[in-house]
Protein backbone atom coordinates (compact mmCIF):
# COMPACT_ATOMS: atom_id res chain seq x y z
CA UNK A 1 0.00 0.00 0.00
CA UNK A 2 1.34 3.42 -0.97
CA UNK A 3 2.17 5.98 1.68
CA UNK A 4 -0.50 8.67 2.14
CA UNK A 5 0.00 12.00 0.43
CA UNK A 6 1.05 14.95 2.57
CA UNK A 7 -1.71 17.58 2.30
CA UNK A 8 -0.60 21.17 1.76
CA UNK A 9 -1.99 24.45 0.45
CA UNK A 10 0.47 26.36 -1.74
CA UNK A 11 0.87 30.14 -1.90
CA UNK A 12 1.47 30.64 -5.62
CA UNK A 13 0.88 34.40 -5.69
CA UNK A 14 3.57 35.93 -7.89
CA UNK A 15 5.30 32.58 -8.42
CA UNK A 16 5.85 31.08 -11.86
CA UNK A 17 3.92 27.97 -12.84
CA UNK A 18 4.48 26.25 -16.16
CA UNK A 19 1.43 24.81 -17.89
CA UNK A 20 2.33 22.57 -20.82
CA UNK A 21 -0.59 22.20 -23.21
CA UNK A 22 -2.97 24.54 -24.98
CA UNK A 23 -6.23 22.62 -25.09
CA UNK A 24 -9.46 22.50 -23.09
CA UNK A 25 -7.92 20.70 -20.12
CA UNK A 26 -5.09 23.24 -19.99
CA UNK A 27 -7.68 26.04 -20.07
CA UNK A 28 -9.38 24.67 -16.94
CA UNK A 29 -6.05 24.37 -15.13
CA UNK A 30 -5.09 27.92 -16.15
CA UNK A 31 -8.30 29.34 -14.70
CA UNK A 32 -7.59 27.79 -11.28
CA UNK A 33 -3.95 28.90 -11.34
CA UNK A 34 -4.84 32.48 -12.24
CA UNK A 35 -7.34 32.57 -9.36
CA UNK A 36 -4.45 31.75 -7.01
CA UNK A 37 -2.42 34.71 -8.30
CA UNK A 38 0.24 32.57 -9.97
CA UNK A 39 2.41 33.87 -12.82
CA UNK A 40 1.26 31.35 -15.43
CA UNK A 41 3.37 30.44 -18.45
CA UNK A 42 1.57 28.32 -21.07
CA UNK A 43 3.74 26.30 -23.44
CA UNK A 44 2.13 24.82 -26.56
CA UNK A 45 2.26 25.04 -30.35
CA UNK A 46 -1.30 26.42 -30.40
CA UNK A 47 -3.88 27.65 -27.89
CA UNK A 48 -7.66 27.36 -27.65
CA UNK A 49 -9.37 30.76 -28.05
CA UNK A 50 -9.85 31.31 -24.30
CA UNK A 51 -6.14 30.86 -23.61
CA UNK A 52 -5.17 32.99 -26.60
CA UNK A 53 -7.44 35.76 -25.32
CA UNK A 54 -5.85 35.57 -21.85
CA UNK A 55 -2.40 35.91 -23.49
CA UNK A 56 -3.60 38.94 -25.45
CA UNK A 57 -4.91 40.49 -22.23
CA UNK A 58 -1.55 39.99 -20.55
CA UNK A 59 -2.82 37.53 -17.96
CA UNK A 60 -0.76 34.63 -19.37
CA UNK A 61 2.62 34.27 -21.05
CA UNK A 62 2.82 31.99 -24.10
CA UNK A 63 5.82 29.84 -25.07
CA UNK A 64 5.08 28.71 -28.63
CA UNK A 65 6.25 25.44 -30.11
CA UNK A 66 7.02 21.94 -28.77
CA UNK A 67 8.06 21.46 -25.15
CA UNK A 68 11.61 22.49 -24.31
CA UNK A 69 13.27 21.78 -20.92
CA UNK A 70 14.34 25.44 -20.60
CA UNK A 71 10.67 26.30 -20.16
CA UNK A 72 11.07 24.96 -16.63
CA UNK A 73 13.62 27.64 -15.71
CA UNK A 74 12.29 29.66 -12.78
CA UNK A 75 9.15 27.53 -12.35
CA UNK A 76 7.97 26.47 -8.89
CA UNK A 77 5.78 23.71 -10.29
CA UNK A 78 4.54 22.40 -13.62
CA UNK A 79 1.34 20.87 -14.97
CA UNK A 80 1.51 18.68 -18.06
CA UNK A 81 -1.88 18.75 -19.82
CA UNK A 82 -1.19 17.81 -23.44
CA UNK A 83 -2.91 15.00 -25.35
CA UNK A 84 0.48 13.38 -26.06
CA UNK A 85 1.49 10.86 -23.38
CA UNK A 86 5.13 10.91 -24.50
CA UNK A 87 5.34 14.68 -24.12
CA UNK A 88 3.70 14.53 -20.70
CA UNK A 89 6.16 11.84 -19.60
CA UNK A 90 9.10 13.95 -20.76
CA UNK A 91 7.80 16.96 -18.84
CA UNK A 92 7.57 14.81 -15.69
CA UNK A 93 11.13 13.47 -16.14
CA UNK A 94 12.64 16.90 -16.69
CA UNK A 95 10.75 18.32 -13.70
CA UNK A 96 11.93 15.45 -11.48
CA UNK A 97 15.54 16.12 -12.50
CA UNK A 98 15.16 19.76 -11.44
CA UNK A 99 13.21 18.93 -8.24
CA UNK A 100 10.16 20.78 -9.50
CA UNK A 101 6.77 19.48 -8.42
CA UNK A 102 4.84 18.09 -11.39
CA UNK A 103 1.26 17.11 -12.08
CA UNK A 104 0.51 15.02 -15.16
CA UNK A 105 -3.18 15.06 -15.98
CA UNK A 106 -4.73 11.56 -15.90
CA UNK A 107 -1.35 9.91 -15.23
CA UNK A 108 -1.15 9.44 -11.47
CA UNK A 109 2.12 7.43 -11.36
CA UNK A 110 3.99 10.35 -12.95
CA UNK A 111 2.57 12.96 -10.56
CA UNK A 112 4.59 14.33 -7.67
CA UNK A 113 1.65 16.47 -6.61
CA UNK A 114 -2.07 16.25 -7.27
CA UNK A 115 -4.78 18.84 -7.60
CA UNK A 116 -7.63 17.98 -5.23
CA UNK A 117 -11.34 18.49 -5.60
CA UNK A 118 -12.16 21.64 -3.63
CA UNK A 119 -15.01 23.18 -1.72
CA UNK A 120 -14.54 26.93 -1.25
CA UNK A 121 -16.18 29.26 1.21
CA UNK A 122 -14.20 32.49 0.89
CA UNK A 123 -10.80 31.97 2.53
CA UNK A 124 -11.99 28.61 3.84
CA UNK A 125 -11.18 25.66 1.57
CA UNK A 126 -11.80 21.95 1.95
CA UNK A 127 -9.60 19.82 -0.32
CA UNK A 128 -10.40 16.20 -1.18
CA UNK A 129 -7.95 13.73 -2.69
CA UNK A 130 -8.21 10.04 -3.54
CA UNK A 131 -4.51 9.91 -4.54
CA UNK A 132 -5.76 9.87 -8.10
CA UNK A 133 -7.26 6.41 -7.68
CA UNK A 134 -10.92 7.42 -7.58
CA UNK A 135 -11.33 10.99 -8.89
CA UNK A 136 -15.06 10.54 -9.46
CA UNK A 137 -15.48 9.58 -5.82
CA UNK A 138 -13.59 12.72 -4.75
CA UNK A 139 -15.86 14.82 -6.98
CA UNK A 140 -18.95 13.13 -5.59
CA UNK A 141 -17.81 13.89 -2.05
CA UNK A 142 -17.18 17.50 -3.03
CA UNK A 143 -20.77 17.69 -4.28
CA UNK A 144 -22.00 16.35 -0.96
CA UNK A 145 -19.98 18.89 0.99
CA UNK A 146 -21.20 21.71 -1.22
CA UNK A 147 -24.71 21.04 0.05
CA UNK A 148 -23.66 20.40 3.66
CA UNK A 149 -21.36 23.36 4.38
CA UNK A 150 -23.10 26.61 5.19
CA UNK A 151 -22.41 29.33 2.59
CA UNK A 152 -21.74 31.83 5.39
CA UNK A 153 -18.67 29.90 6.59
CA UNK A 154 -16.57 32.07 4.28
CA UNK A 155 -17.83 35.22 5.97
CA UNK A 156 -17.12 33.68 9.38
CA UNK A 157 -13.58 32.75 8.33
CA UNK A 158 -12.88 36.26 7.02
CA UNK A 159 -14.38 37.84 10.16
CA UNK A 160 -12.28 35.68 12.47
CA UNK A 161 -9.20 36.46 10.39
CA UNK A 162 -9.72 40.14 11.14
CA UNK A 163 -9.89 39.41 14.88
CA UNK A 164 -6.70 37.32 15.17
CA UNK A 165 -4.41 40.06 16.42
CA UNK A 166 -6.89 41.34 19.00
CA UNK A 167 -7.41 37.77 20.27
CA UNK A 168 -3.66 37.17 20.46
CA UNK A 169 -3.13 40.26 22.55
CA UNK A 170 -6.07 39.61 24.88
CA UNK A 171 -5.42 35.88 25.29
CA UNK A 172 -1.68 35.20 25.08
CA UNK A 173 -2.19 31.63 26.28
CA UNK A 174 -2.82 29.51 23.15
CA UNK A 175 -5.11 27.07 24.96
CA UNK A 176 -7.34 29.79 26.35
CA UNK A 177 -7.36 31.59 23.01
CA UNK A 178 -8.54 28.42 21.28
CA UNK A 179 -11.29 27.99 23.86
CA UNK A 180 -12.56 31.51 23.18
CA UNK A 181 -12.42 31.07 19.41
CA UNK A 182 -14.31 27.77 19.65
CA UNK A 183 -16.98 29.55 21.68
CA UNK A 184 -17.24 32.24 18.99
CA UNK A 185 -17.55 29.61 16.25
CA UNK A 186 -20.21 27.65 18.09
CA UNK A 187 -22.02 30.55 19.72
CA UNK A 188 -23.91 33.80 19.07
CA UNK A 189 -21.16 35.40 16.95
CA UNK A 190 -21.48 32.75 14.26
CA UNK A 191 -25.27 32.82 14.55
CA UNK A 192 -25.27 36.58 14.03
CA UNK A 193 -23.03 36.38 10.95
CA UNK A 194 -25.20 33.61 9.53
CA UNK A 195 -28.15 35.99 9.60
CA UNK A 196 -26.14 38.97 8.35
CA UNK A 197 -26.12 40.75 11.71
CA UNK A 198 -22.61 42.23 11.78
CA UNK A 199 -23.37 44.41 14.82
CA UNK A 200 -24.53 41.34 16.74
CA UNK A 201 -21.33 39.51 15.88
CA UNK A 202 -19.22 42.46 17.03
CA UNK A 203 -21.17 42.62 20.29
CA UNK A 204 -20.50 38.90 20.88
CA UNK A 205 -16.81 39.49 20.14
CA UNK A 206 -16.57 42.33 22.66
CA UNK A 207 -18.21 40.10 25.25
CA UNK A 208 -15.63 37.40 24.51
CA UNK A 209 -12.77 39.86 24.99
CA UNK A 210 -14.16 40.71 28.42
CA UNK A 211 -13.82 37.11 29.60
CA UNK A 212 -11.15 35.88 31.99
CA UNK A 213 -7.83 35.26 30.17
CA UNK A 214 -6.91 32.41 32.51
CA UNK A 215 -7.16 29.00 30.80
CA UNK A 216 -10.13 26.95 31.96
CA UNK A 217 -9.27 23.30 32.36
CA UNK A 218 -11.84 20.53 32.31
CA UNK A 219 -12.14 16.79 31.76
CA UNK A 220 -14.50 15.05 29.34
CA UNK A 221 -14.99 11.37 30.08
CA UNK A 222 -15.72 9.75 26.70
CA UNK A 223 -16.79 6.22 25.90
CA UNK A 224 -14.89 5.20 22.76
CA UNK A 225 -17.05 2.17 22.03
CA UNK A 226 -15.62 -1.28 21.34
CA UNK A 227 -13.35 -0.35 18.42
CA UNK A 228 -15.28 0.40 15.23
CA UNK A 229 -14.93 4.20 14.81
CA UNK A 230 -18.42 4.27 13.31
CA UNK A 231 -19.78 3.46 16.78
CA UNK A 232 -18.30 6.57 18.40
CA UNK A 233 -21.07 9.03 19.23
CA UNK A 234 -21.23 12.46 17.58
CA UNK A 235 -20.77 14.05 20.99
CA UNK A 236 -17.69 11.92 21.57
CA UNK A 237 -16.29 13.05 18.21
CA UNK A 238 -16.82 16.71 19.13
CA UNK A 239 -15.00 16.14 22.42
CA UNK A 240 -12.02 14.60 20.62
CA UNK A 241 -11.88 17.61 18.31
CA UNK A 242 -11.68 19.91 21.34
CA UNK A 243 -9.07 17.94 23.27
CA UNK A 244 -5.67 19.35 24.19
CA UNK A 245 -4.77 16.08 25.89
CA UNK A 246 -6.17 12.58 25.36
CA UNK A 247 -5.62 9.96 28.06
CA UNK A 248 -6.61 6.70 26.45
CA UNK A 249 -6.78 3.03 27.33
CA UNK A 250 -4.62 0.52 25.49
CA UNK A 251 -7.65 -1.06 23.87
CA UNK A 252 -8.96 2.13 22.26
CA UNK A 253 -8.55 1.49 18.54
CA UNK A 254 -6.13 3.46 16.39
CA UNK A 255 -9.03 4.40 14.12
CA UNK A 256 -10.82 6.12 17.01
CA UNK A 257 -7.64 7.85 18.19
CA UNK A 258 -7.11 9.17 14.66
CA UNK A 259 -10.32 11.20 15.06
CA UNK A 260 -8.74 13.38 17.78
CA UNK A 261 -7.20 16.77 17.02
CA UNK A 262 -3.88 16.10 15.31
CA UNK A 263 -1.96 18.38 17.66
CA UNK A 264 -3.52 16.91 20.81
CA UNK A 265 -1.11 15.21 23.20
CA UNK A 266 -1.99 11.51 23.38
CA UNK A 267 -1.02 9.57 26.50
CA UNK A 268 -1.63 5.84 26.76
CA UNK A 269 -2.55 4.77 30.27
CA UNK A 270 -2.32 1.04 29.68
CA UNK A 271 -4.37 -1.17 31.96
CA UNK A 272 -5.14 -4.80 31.25
CA UNK A 273 -5.74 -7.93 33.26
CA UNK A 274 -2.58 -9.08 34.95
CA UNK A 275 -0.41 -6.12 33.87
CA UNK A 276 -1.34 -2.72 35.31
CA UNK A 277 1.18 -0.45 33.62
CA UNK A 278 -0.49 2.71 34.93
CA UNK A 279 -2.16 2.67 38.33
CA UNK A 280 -5.63 4.12 38.75
CA UNK A 281 -4.21 6.65 41.20
CA UNK A 282 -1.70 7.82 38.61
CA UNK A 283 -4.50 8.26 36.07
CA UNK A 284 -6.33 10.47 38.56
CA UNK A 285 -3.16 12.52 39.04
CA UNK A 286 -2.68 12.98 35.28
CA UNK A 287 -6.27 14.10 34.77
CA UNK A 288 -6.02 16.66 37.54
CA UNK A 289 -2.54 17.85 36.53
CA UNK A 290 -3.47 18.60 32.91
CA UNK A 291 -6.85 20.11 33.78
CA UNK A 292 -5.24 22.45 36.33
CA UNK A 293 -2.84 23.54 33.56
CA UNK A 294 -5.88 24.86 31.71
CA UNK A 295 -6.16 21.98 29.25
CA UNK A 296 -9.26 20.33 27.87
CA UNK A 297 -8.61 16.70 28.76
CA UNK A 298 -10.47 13.82 27.14
CA UNK A 299 -10.35 10.61 29.13
CA UNK A 300 -11.02 8.10 26.37
CA UNK A 301 -12.16 4.71 27.60
CA UNK A 302 -13.05 1.60 25.62
CA UNK A 303 -16.75 0.78 25.56
CA UNK A 304 -18.72 2.83 28.07
CA UNK A 305 -16.85 4.54 30.96
CA UNK A 306 -19.50 3.52 33.50
CA UNK A 307 -19.54 -0.19 32.62
CA UNK A 308 -16.50 -1.77 34.29
CA UNK A 309 -14.50 1.28 33.24
CA UNK A 310 -13.83 2.90 36.64
CA UNK A 311 -15.42 6.07 35.31
CA UNK A 312 -17.15 6.62 38.63
CA UNK A 313 -13.84 6.50 40.51
CA UNK A 314 -12.34 9.07 38.16
CA UNK A 315 -15.28 11.43 38.58
CA UNK A 316 -14.98 11.14 42.35
CA UNK A 317 -11.32 12.15 42.11
CA UNK A 318 -12.14 15.08 39.83
CA UNK A 319 -14.94 16.32 42.07
CA UNK A 320 -12.69 16.13 45.13
CA UNK A 321 -10.10 18.22 43.25
CA UNK A 322 -12.69 20.76 42.06
CA UNK A 323 -12.16 19.97 38.36
CA UNK A 324 -15.14 20.57 36.03
CA UNK A 325 -16.12 17.49 34.04
CA UNK A 326 -18.75 16.00 31.78
CA UNK A 327 -19.52 12.47 30.63
CA UNK A 328 -20.13 11.23 27.10
CA UNK A 329 -21.45 7.66 27.21
CA UNK A 330 -20.30 5.04 24.75
CA UNK A 331 -21.57 1.76 23.32
CA UNK A 332 -20.50 -0.95 25.72
CA UNK A 333 -18.86 -4.15 24.47
CA UNK A 334 -21.78 -6.45 25.28
CA UNK A 335 -24.13 -4.52 23.00
CA UNK A 336 -21.67 -4.21 20.13
CA UNK A 337 -20.26 -7.73 20.32
CA UNK A 338 -23.73 -9.23 20.46
CA UNK A 339 -24.93 -7.17 17.51
CA UNK A 340 -21.88 -7.79 15.33
CA UNK A 341 -21.92 -11.51 16.07
CA UNK A 342 -25.66 -11.83 15.40
CA UNK A 343 -26.54 -12.59 19.03
CA UNK A 344 -29.61 -10.88 20.52
CA UNK A 345 -28.91 -10.45 24.22
CA UNK A 346 -32.60 -10.92 24.97
CA UNK A 347 -35.13 -13.06 23.15
CA UNK A 348 -38.72 -13.92 24.00
CA UNK A 349 -38.06 -17.65 23.69
CA UNK A 350 -34.60 -17.84 25.27
CA UNK A 351 -33.65 -14.98 27.61
CA UNK A 352 -35.69 -12.44 29.55
CA UNK A 353 -32.74 -10.73 31.26
CA UNK A 354 -29.07 -9.85 30.76
CA UNK A 355 -26.35 -9.77 33.37
CA UNK A 356 -23.14 -7.81 32.79
CA UNK A 357 -20.32 -9.44 34.76
CA UNK A 358 -16.61 -8.79 35.15
CA UNK A 359 -14.26 -11.62 35.99
CA UNK A 360 -10.78 -10.27 35.36
CA UNK A 361 -9.21 -11.48 38.60
CA UNK A 362 -9.72 -14.03 41.42
CA UNK A 363 -11.15 -11.44 43.80
CA UNK A 364 -13.89 -10.39 41.38
CA UNK A 365 -14.77 -13.99 40.56
CA UNK A 366 -15.14 -14.87 44.25
CA UNK A 367 -17.62 -12.03 44.83
CA UNK A 368 -20.07 -13.12 42.13
CA UNK A 369 -23.48 -14.55 42.97
CA UNK A 370 -23.04 -17.90 41.22
CA UNK A 371 -26.45 -19.21 42.27
CA UNK A 372 -28.12 -16.33 40.43
CA UNK A 373 -25.75 -16.50 37.48
CA UNK A 374 -26.44 -20.20 36.95
CA UNK A 375 -30.17 -19.65 36.39
CA UNK A 376 -31.55 -20.58 32.98
CA UNK A 377 -33.27 -18.24 30.48
CA UNK A 378 -30.86 -15.38 30.97
CA UNK A 379 -27.80 -14.11 29.13
CA UNK A 380 -24.43 -13.59 30.79
CA UNK A 381 -22.05 -11.08 29.22
CA UNK A 382 -18.69 -11.60 30.91
CA UNK A 383 -16.10 -8.86 30.50
CA UNK A 384 -12.37 -9.45 30.89
CA UNK A 385 -12.87 -13.13 31.60
CA UNK A 386 -10.42 -14.78 29.19
CA UNK A 387 -7.96 -15.61 31.95
CA UNK A 388 -10.61 -17.21 34.17
CA UNK A 389 -12.70 -19.31 31.78
CA UNK A 390 -11.99 -22.58 33.59
CA UNK A 391 -13.21 -21.13 36.89
CA UNK A 392 -16.27 -19.59 35.24
CA UNK A 393 -17.17 -22.94 33.68
CA UNK A 394 -16.63 -24.89 36.91
CA UNK A 395 -18.59 -22.48 39.11
CA UNK A 396 -21.57 -22.37 36.75
CA UNK A 397 -21.69 -26.16 36.46
CA UNK A 398 -21.40 -26.54 40.24
CA UNK A 399 -24.43 -24.29 40.70
CA UNK A 400 -26.64 -26.05 38.19
CA UNK A 401 -26.09 -24.45 34.80
CA UNK A 402 -26.49 -27.03 32.05
CA UNK A 403 -23.22 -28.21 30.45
CA UNK A 404 -24.88 -27.85 27.03
CA UNK A 405 -25.51 -24.13 27.51
CA UNK A 406 -24.23 -22.40 24.33
CA UNK A 407 -21.51 -19.76 24.50
CA UNK A 408 -19.87 -17.30 22.10
CA UNK A 409 -16.44 -15.79 22.61
CA UNK A 410 -16.22 -12.58 20.60
CA UNK A 411 -12.62 -11.54 20.10
CA UNK A 412 -11.85 -7.98 18.91
CA UNK A 413 -15.55 -7.26 18.77
CA UNK A 414 -16.72 -4.80 16.06
CA UNK A 415 -13.24 -4.52 14.54
CA UNK A 416 -12.09 -5.69 11.13
CA UNK A 417 -10.37 -8.72 12.71
CA UNK A 418 -13.38 -9.77 14.80
CA UNK A 419 -13.59 -13.50 15.44
CA UNK A 420 -16.44 -15.46 17.01
CA UNK A 421 -15.80 -18.84 18.62
CA UNK A 422 -18.87 -20.93 19.47
CA UNK A 423 -19.32 -23.96 21.69
CA UNK A 424 -21.02 -25.24 24.84
CA UNK A 425 -20.25 -24.54 28.47
CA UNK A 426 -18.73 -27.94 29.26
CA UNK A 427 -15.87 -27.34 26.80
CA UNK A 428 -15.51 -23.56 27.25
CA UNK A 429 -11.85 -23.29 28.39
CA UNK A 430 -10.70 -26.05 26.06
CA UNK A 431 -12.36 -24.41 23.04
CA UNK A 432 -10.82 -21.05 23.92
CA UNK A 433 -7.37 -22.63 24.30
CA UNK A 434 -7.67 -24.57 21.04
CA UNK A 435 -8.65 -21.41 19.16
CA UNK A 436 -6.05 -19.32 21.03
CA UNK A 437 -8.58 -16.67 22.02
CA UNK A 438 -6.87 -13.53 23.25
CA UNK A 439 -7.95 -10.32 24.95
CA UNK A 440 -9.93 -8.26 24.18
CA UNK A 441 -12.66 -10.87 24.11
CA UNK A 442 -16.16 -10.91 25.55
CA UNK A 443 -17.93 -14.09 26.65
CA UNK A 444 -21.65 -14.30 25.88
CA UNK A 445 -23.23 -17.31 27.55
CA UNK A 446 -26.82 -18.44 27.30
CA UNK A 447 -29.31 -19.93 24.90
CA UNK A 448 -29.15 -16.85 22.66
CA UNK A 449 -25.50 -17.58 21.80
CA UNK A 450 -26.61 -20.50 19.63
CA UNK A 451 -28.38 -18.02 17.33
CA UNK A 452 -25.02 -16.77 16.06
CA UNK A 453 -24.84 -19.66 13.61
CA UNK A 454 -27.95 -18.34 11.84
CA UNK A 455 -27.92 -14.61 12.48
CA UNK A 456 -24.30 -13.51 12.13
CA UNK A 457 -23.43 -11.30 9.16
CA UNK A 458 -21.53 -12.99 6.38
CA UNK A 459 -22.10 -9.96 4.18
CA UNK A 460 -21.72 -7.07 6.61
CA UNK A 461 -22.78 -3.55 5.59
CA UNK A 462 -19.93 -1.30 4.34
CA UNK A 463 -19.59 0.48 7.67
CA UNK A 464 -19.14 -2.76 9.58
CA UNK A 465 -16.25 -5.23 9.65
CA UNK A 466 -16.80 -8.78 8.49
CA UNK A 467 -17.51 -11.44 11.07
CA UNK A 468 -15.31 -14.54 10.94
CA UNK A 469 -16.49 -17.66 12.69
CA UNK A 470 -14.29 -20.37 14.10
CA UNK A 471 -14.21 -23.16 13.15
CA UNK A 472 -14.70 -22.03 9.53
CA UNK A 473 -18.18 -22.62 8.20
CA UNK A 474 -18.51 -25.15 5.37
CA UNK A 475 -20.84 -22.73 3.58
CA UNK A 476 -22.02 -19.20 4.14
CA UNK A 477 -25.16 -20.45 5.81
CA UNK A 478 -24.00 -23.17 8.17
CA UNK A 479 -21.69 -23.59 11.10
CA UNK A 480 -20.69 -26.62 13.11
CA UNK A 481 -21.00 -26.10 16.84
CA UNK A 482 -18.43 -27.77 19.06
CA UNK A 483 -19.96 -29.74 21.92
Q: Round the mean pLDDT to the nearest integer and report it.
A: 89
CATH topology of the largest domain: Methyltransferase, Cobalt-precorrin-4 Transmethylase, Domain 2
Structural domain tally: 4
Query: Number of DSSP helices?
Result: 19
Give the termini separation. 42 Å
In CATH terms, the superfamily of the largest domain is: Tetrapyrrole methylase, C-terminal domain
Question: How large is the radius of gyration?
Answer: 30 Å
Global outline: globular
Please state roughly what percent of the residues sit in beta strands, choosing from under 5%, 5-15%, 15-25%, 25-35%, 35-45% or over 45%: 15-25%
Report the helical percentage: 25-40%
User: How many strand units?
Assistant: 18
The CATH class of the largest domain: Alpha Beta
Task: Using the 3D structure, state the CATH architecture of the largest domain.
Answer: 2-Layer Sandwich
Task: List the strand order in the largest sheet.
Answer: 13-14-17-15-16-18
**Assembly category:** single chain
* Derived structural class: alpha/beta
Low-confidence segments, given as residue ranges, are 458-468, 470-483
How many strands, what sense, and barrel or not for the largest sheet?
Answer: 6 strands, mixed
Condensed summary:
The chain has 483 residues and is of the alpha/beta class. The protein is 35% helix and 18% strand.
Features:
globular; disordered C terminus; Cobalt-precorrin-4 Transmethylase, domain 1; 483 residues; Rossmann fold; single chain; alpha/beta; 5-stranded parallel β-sheet; 19 helices; 6-stranded mixed β-sheet
Amino acid sequence: MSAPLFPAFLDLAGRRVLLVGGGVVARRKAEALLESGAEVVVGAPALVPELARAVAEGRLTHRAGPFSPDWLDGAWLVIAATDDAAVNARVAREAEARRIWANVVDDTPRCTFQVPARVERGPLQVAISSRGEAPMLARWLREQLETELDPTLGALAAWLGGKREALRQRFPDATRRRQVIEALIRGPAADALRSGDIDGAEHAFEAALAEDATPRGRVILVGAGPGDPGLLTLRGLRALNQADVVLHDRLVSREVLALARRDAEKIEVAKEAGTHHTTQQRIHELLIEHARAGKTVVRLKGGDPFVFGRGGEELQALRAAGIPYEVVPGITAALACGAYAGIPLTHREHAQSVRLVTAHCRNSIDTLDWIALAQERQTLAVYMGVQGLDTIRDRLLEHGRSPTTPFALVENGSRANQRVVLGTLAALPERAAAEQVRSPALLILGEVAALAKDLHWFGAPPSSPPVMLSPPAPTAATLTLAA
